[in-house]
Amino acid sequence: MIKVYGIKNCDSVKKAISFFKQHNLSYELYDFKEKLVPCGVISSWLSQSDIKTLFNARSTTYRTLKLKELNLDDNAKVEWLCKENMLIKRPVVEFESDLLVGFNEENYKGVFL
Fold first, then answer.
1. Contact 92, 100 (CB under 8 A)
2. Which neighbouring-strand residues pair with 27?
């Protein structure tokens, strides 16, 4: 089963869901506006990815919280991801042993088709 982490109104999440629907792939959406992603899940993602990929320093949340001014190190960024899921780059897609962050149609074709 494909598990998509994100929020329903995010354009990148919409593109990923549209891709799955277009190719008749079943998926489950984990909307982290409704339910926080546990820190253990985020840690497992970081074992397959890196903080630069997962942490969205271009988000509205990042700017609103003025995190740039704090000069966060990687450990602090992980702590922020755990308490403020809106800092996670979207979507995060889990499929078998693969983890994809963000939407890239060519990457999705290579993994899912």
1. yes
2. 2
Q: What are residue 3's DSSP bridge partners?
A: 28, 94
Is 82 an annotated catalytic residue?
no
- Strand partners of residue 93: 4, 100
Domain, as residue range, for 61? 2-112
pLDDT tens-digit map of 8-52 = 999 999 999 999 999 999 999 999 999 999 999 999 999 999 999
Number of domains in the chain: 1
Task: For the full predicted model, state whether its pTM sits above 0.90.
Answer: yes
List the catalytic residue out of 3, 10, 25, 37.
10
DSSP character for 36? Answer: P
